[in-house]
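Its record is set out here:
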Amino acid sequence: MRDEQVLDRQLRDPEFRRLFQEEKLILDVTEQVSQALEERQLSRADLSRLLGKTRGYVTQVLSGSTNLTLRTVADVMTALGFEMGVSREPLKGIHSHPVEWKPSQGCIAFDAEIIVPPLPIQQADHPAQEIAA
């Protein structure tokens, strides 16, 4: 079985999908911070001085071992002279039927959308039409 098939099968499990998306987002953010450091030709020690934090803290942020809040990410990127935005995309490899899960916030996920509180979703012939609606 190919890796993509294995991943697709695992992503059908709502809990696995949730954890996978968490780890993917952490990796994406830490990669953006690392790229910003490289572009600015700054070291972790430089970043710690800019933030007024310890080098250990910066190492935790870059390794993904600390719980990154949006405020922390904004502080780090601002210190490096960058702005960082957030976007959303439909999950890949996921079937079009709604899947419920109950993360700690009590949200309900409908494919790529997290809706709080749950709102009716318009039915469409094509998944892209649902997103645009």
In short: The helical segments are 3-10, 14-40, 44-51, 55-63, 70-79, 127-132. The chain has six helices and two strands.
